[in-house]
Amino acid sequence: MQESFWFDLCRLHSIHYCHPESSWKELYQSNEFCKMCPHLNGSLFDVLFEKKKLLWARSITQTGNYVLCLHNSCDYFGESDKDDMNHPRHQQQHVLALKLSPLHILELWCNACKKTIGFNGFARQFNQGLKAEYYFMKSFIQDFVTYKPTEDDESLQHCINKKRRDIEYGLYRIQFRYSSMHIVDKDWHNSWLAFISGKSDRCPGTLTNKNLFLSDGFTFDPTLVLGKEFELIGSLTRWYIERVYGVENGRIVSTNDLPNNADYCRLIHKIQVWQQMNQAARHLVTIE
Description:
This protein is an alpha+beta fold. It folds into 2 domains: 153 residues, no CATH class; 107 residues, DUSP-like (2-Layer Sandwich), CATH 3.30.2230. The protein is built from 8 helices and 8 strands; from the N terminus they run H-H-H-E-E-E-E-E-H-H-E-H-E-H-E-H. Strands 2-1-3-4-5 form a 5-stranded antiparallel β-sheet, with helices on one face.
């Protein structure tokens, strides 16, 4: 009945993290720890300040593919498509990295596990192992992109805001080239555009989407109007928002998951027309 017993069993498999709403017993008995990345641990947060300075103070091109090593004694930051012999990526202790490229924007990556930490498509339900891994990843990424007055240098604030705007504006411009579309609250979307365009210094915060659902909290309201009550984003943007801003209760809907019945016909038709017009335009979008 003691959690320390189950923690020791998980630790034998090199798992040192768990979702705060789950117990070590639940994690171990789910047998999902074998699918978790065993290279994550709390020491990753100990080097956060130095890694933030290393990234946000650098000049980064929109088309580059960069990797930031997260090992505590390594200051490697370079292009991922080049074989830099000065960076011991092949060594077991240098397996965790942060990816920064048009298609991999601030993704936590494990070279040993060969996977993006915490990503399991856009399934609403996570098993115990992926739930813990996703929580760890999101906590780390959100700390990485946030200026903390009590911990960070004052000069970092300007750098973080400026580089985040560049990253998120670039993401906004290419988001519909590669993927399906997802529905987000219009007010949140407006706040996000105001931030990345420089009209506001305030980040929009967690995406709730609570106004888009019926009273049950899970059924999307078919009477809502595109451009008035909701906007569309691409899969790249959704994955970024989930990690950096967070989505309350996972309430975000893909247009592919809307019910194919009479109640949703008009809504789906308008979305399809919008999609065809967007594809036909084939030019870079700008923020008005």
